Input
Amino acid sequence: MALVSDTLQDDGGEMRRARRERFFQRLNRANGTLSVFGLGFLVPLARMAAGDNVKAQARELWQQLVVPLIGIAVFLAAWAWLAPQVKTSLGAIPGPMQVWAQASNLHADHKAERVKEQAFYDRQDVRNRKLVADGRADQVKHRTYTGKPTYVDQILTSLKTVALGFVIATLIAVPAGIACGLSQTMSGALNPLIQIFKPVSPLAWLPIVTMIVSAVYIEPYDWMPKSLLISAVTVTLCSLWPTLINTSLGVASIDKDLLNVGRVLQLPTRRTITKLILPSSLPLIFTGLRLSLGVGWMVLIAAEMLAQNPGLGKFVWDEFQNGSSQSLAKIMVAVLTIGVIGFLLDRLMYALQSAFTYSAHR
Amino acid sequence: MSGTFRKPSTRAVMLDRRTALLGAGGLVGAAALGVRPARGAALSVEKDELKFGFIKLTDMAPLAVAKELGYFEEEGLFVTLEAQANWKVLLDRVITGELDGAHMLAGQPLAATIGFGTKAHIVTPFSMDLNGNGITVSNEIWNLMKPHIPKGPDGKPQHPIGAAALKPAIEKLRADGKPFKMGMVFPVSTHNYELRYWLAAGGINPGFYSPSDVTGTIKAEALLSVTPPPQMPATLEAGTIHGYCVGEPWNQAAVFKGIGVPVITDYQIWKNNPEKVFGITAAFAQKNPNTVLALTKALIRAAMWLDENDNANRVKAVEMLSKPEYVGADKAVIANSMTGTFEFEKGDKRAIPDFNVFFRHFATYPYYSDAVWYLTQMRRWGQIAEGRDDAWYADAARKVYRPDLYLKAAKLLVEEGKAKKADFPWDSDGYRTPTPAADIIDGVVYDGRKPNAYIDGLAIGLKGRQRVDGANIIGG
Output
């Protein structure tokens, strides 16, 4: 691609020209990073601003920014036009405007709840001061707010749950995957189990997980209620397979010469793993992790619906049960939220993946 | 009016005698509990952060009111209320201790305690309400029923509508090779028993349970199955069921959505029948006696508020319940039943002032006779497989229903000046006066002291020593 247009003919511009050259080089490098975060369209804009060939950059911009925007606009228009034509028992299907109204509603609700929360703490302070004044300071208690979780709280709970489930999955899947990749026997033993458990739906795991967690986790900590653990373990069970399979594939496909070199140097097993196997299988491990997180986020919603974990899934279920005239729009807000967060999580993993994938860039 | 239910005059006389007694015993009792009798002093509760579960139905109102109006906090309780997915999840979470207590079907603590379904000892210090349910059929069934319902002088269907009018519809479906299916909310729910009562009173067999077949459809002419309350309208709309029995707002929701027609309310089946209870495990009650008193006090105050000044607060209550964290349905839908009217066929709105009773008629006192009625229905339909003697019924009721705890809480409220003495049946032996024949749709008098005589007097159902064996009823 032409980095600098040939029209540049400034005489005293040797220095400036070199600076521009460096600037474009930097832009080129940034291009990779920006496109990881879905911000690739900034590059042509910057180039245009710096005086690059407008026509070529405009074409680039069209591809990267305008076409996706047109896609979204067409979708919104089709939605707005088609939605009111379907009448459900809860009224017509809400269009983009109603959904937006409910999103603001949820936000207002969140703010109102925070005000109530403050009032709760104020009452508590008054009570505690009174206790201290009465000389009963030992009875002073600080309680967390007992009101309902707001939409924002529910998003945070969901993120916490999926993070927990994902961490557990990773801790199990990566070592198991390495073991499978290194040893034919291990792989042969685990493969049938993987194949059988991989396609099981979260809804099937949930009752089993509920029963086991209830039996084993008897005295719950405040920061980890049973419902959270149940959802998280369900997420683990569904999301560990892609990491496991990809890790074992990555480890198994390591260059045999590398292993032979290791053998010649008489590296102990642990160093073989940390110095040779892990670095060369990282790209595939991260591919697996990225898939796992996607699956985890997807099944989390189903798990939360039934495990009563106060996250987005429970929000959707409660709204479905409410059956009020606003319920459908609120559920759609949740659907879009779930989608956007899922997209962001995927981008995050993609960024990590490209950061750890040396071969592609160097 | 339902004044016929009890005799107020004799009760008032007994009350005076009893209150004198209580006055003397009051201080001793309070001291034994470690309670200072000082006015308004909160009990020293053992557990002050509590989580209660509920199902999205209007009769969870006492919980929402006690929280929103700060009654729980005034008792030193910090309560989180959490909607549950269904009755089974709710019960399981109370048993495992994830929930400290919950809004329960009256049959749940009883069934759990006698070991039908999940076994656990659950007690109830507080009944939550009377009435509040209805039976709704789909538009298709309603059109088949309507020609067989006599009309009143105003041209509207004459109430109460008996299940006999349903028979032609069932026969028509059967001729088309389709079974007649109805939804209820749980095998031991009031709704199951009320729906069965109504069907049986109209000569339709709703089916039996047996130890080996717990679907409850042995010999059934109407197949009943479980659907969680909030999903009832959607399931009816999908055509999976032809009708259902459920609490509010889900009957009114069918009218609003135009997908079904309520045919009868449970008030018309049995005037002032007992409904939900507040359930806690026996272990919780034993470990936290003051907490139980405190929460019962808060709930009694909430119930009083709901019925105060002839339902004057109901509009505010509707406002609370329509919040998404509680019932969450539209205000108009909730208001229909909460404010004393009930809409049957679209436009056919009738006044039923006692459709939802939270405090009047001693609604919150946990009567043994209410418990016994549920047990008789469990026996009638085979959930209790073997015949039992009258003493067994009384014992089971005493194990679960705890009017002693209720009266302790009530006494504290009276001492604090938050309730009137006359509001509580201090002298009751736990049994209501027998229901007069006029108050119940099939005219069979119910006397909680004689469960077996009552069971034998009912038209369809197991009697005496009868058992269900395979698809047959044997013995007797």
